[in-house]
Specification:
Elements lengths: L35 E7 L2 E6 L2 E6 L4 E9 L2 E7 L10 E7 L10 E4 L3 E4 L5 E4 L4 E4 L2 E4 L2 E3 L6 E3 L4 E4 L20 E2 L2 E3 L4 E2 L6 E7 L8 E7 L4 E9 L14 E5 L5 E5 L6 E7 L10 E7 L1 E7 L5 E6 L3 E6 L8 E4 H8 L21 E4 L4 E8 L15 E11 L2
Parallel strand pairs: 14-20
Antiparallel strand pairs: 1-2, 2-31, 3-31, 4-5, 5-6, 6-7, 8-9, 9-12, 10-11, 10-15, 11-14, 12-13, 16-18, 17-18, 18-19, 19-20, 21-22, 22-23, 23-24, 25-26, 26-27, 27-28, 29-30, 30-31
Length: about 400
């Protein structure tokens, strides 16, 4: 199907039409500018935060946001619109901003994936979240491509392939897959953030999952010359990790520090500190896993400013941004994003627990520097926790952004 601004072809292997339920997009014109939301102290620096800005609402699932900065003031965000369960078809939506996150476009239905590869030709690849297991050592999927300067999205015919696994891959779910056993869902998924290798042309990305027979997760690093053909470069941390956490190393974030080392931060379990490892040889080997001092617990997001300051976002319990001004991942200073949201959005507070027993935010976030001083952080607020909103309810799930400005050296 060809449209003026968006081109989407449904995947040939997915017999489904993506539906967007009861969406209420933010108006793109005649909206007020960023509004001041106050200032907090972090590591001797003043951090000014805007009042939360609505990105999107829906009475259907709308959560687990990922957000990327393309160039100048252009951003895009990807949101999941399906239940929190493993499945072969993964509906989601993408929305664009051309004014630094102040306003967002009408959502467009896509297949959800959270790993973006910014290629040197100016295009962006959105890698699939789930992969199909073709053999014990080969997993495949389909990618979407965003054009360089316009909001055009298309599926790529050439498959994404991940090979070179050091061990046999486990299954994500034995009951998910082709009934004729032609394929199953692989036990590893693309997750986190991508960086360029030191050669300036090889892409590096993280995946997590279980190797066959393993009781906990592992995080691995893959390399690719084009964003489509991937080969495992190393195991960052595996199920033998000595850090506390029944899940083990899993959801992760990756960044290259000012001293050229790679830093990978990863989840170990809900409500426990993040683990982290460094690499001084471009991801071929990694230091022994250690806990971060303070930040926790579900999927982290990392971003490095041009001056070397680190931002890390996440939480559970709670919702936070942490600042590390030295860019060494040692001392982290917490900014309470949950309290900031509740101060300004009193009618839709983020609470630590609701009737379902879970918080009414996933605590899944994305934080990105815009320039040396300014950053955006995106997060969700759930009307009924992990459960669907009742049909007779007026509640909506919502996604929000906050703009930050750091003052001082």
């Amino acid at each position: 199907m060809h449209l003026r601004y968006v081109v989407i072809r449904l995947m040939s292997w997915a017999a489904v039409a993506f539906a967007w339920p009861v969406a209420l997009p933010v108006a793109a014109q005649q909206t007020p500018p960023w509004e001041d939301g106050g200032t907090v102290e972090a590591d001797g620096l003043k951090v000014s935060l805007s009042r939360p800005r609505l990105v999107l609402r829906s009475q259907g699932f709308l959560w687990f946001p990922s957000m990327y900065h393309r160039a100048d003031n252009r951003w895009f965000a990807i949101l999941s619109t399906y239940a929190d369960q493993a499945q072969d078809v993964t509906p989601g939506v993408i929305t664009f901003s051309h004014d630094g996150g102040l306003n967002w476009s009408k959502p467009v239905a896509v297949s959800y994936g959270e790993m973006a590869i910014f290629r040197t030709d100016g295009t962006t690849l959105l890698l699939p979240y789930y992969l199909r297991l073709k053999s014990d050592t080969l997993a495949t999927g389909k990618a979407l491509r965003l054009a360089k300067d316009v909001q055009a999205i298309e599926e790529i015919d050439e498959p994404v392939e991940v090979s070179g696994w050091p061990r046999k891959i486990g299954l994500l779910d034995a009951d998910l897959g082709n009934p004729k056993a032609e394929w199953k869902l692989a036990g590893f998924v693309f997750n986190g953030q991508s960086v360029l290798a030191q050669d300036g042309k090889t892409y590096l990305a993280t995946l997590y999952g279980r190797f066959a027979g393993a009781s906990r997760y592992s995080v691995v690093l893959a390399e690719s010359p084009d964003g489509l053909k991937w080969k495992i470069r190393s195991v960052i941390a595996d199920e033998t990790c000595k850090l506390r956490g029944r899940e083990g190393p899993c959801e992760s974030a990756l960044v290259r520090l000012k001293d050229s080392r790679l830093l990978c931060v990863y989840r170990l379990d809900s409500e426990v500190p993040y683990g982290h490892s460094f690499s001084s040889d471009d991801g071929n080997t990694w230091t022994e896993p250690k806990n971060l001092d303070g930040p926790l617990s579900v999927q982290p997001s990392l971003s490095l400013s041009a001056k070397g300051m680190l931002l890390l976002s996440g939480g559970r319990p709670g919702l936070y941004v942490w600042l590390n001004s030295q860019g060494d991942a040692v001392r982290w200073h917490r900014i309470d994003l949950q309290a900031h949201h509740n101060k300004w959005v009193k009618e839709e507070p983020i609470l630590l627990a609701v009737a379902s027993g879970k918080s009414n935010s996933t605590s899944y976030t994305e934080v990105r520097w815009l320039d040396d001083r300014h950053f955006l952080v995106i997060y969700d607020r759930l009307a009924n926790g992990w459960s669907p909103i009742p049909k007779d309810s007026k509640g909506t799930n919502s996604v929000w952004v906050v703009r930050g400005q750091v003052e001082g050296d």
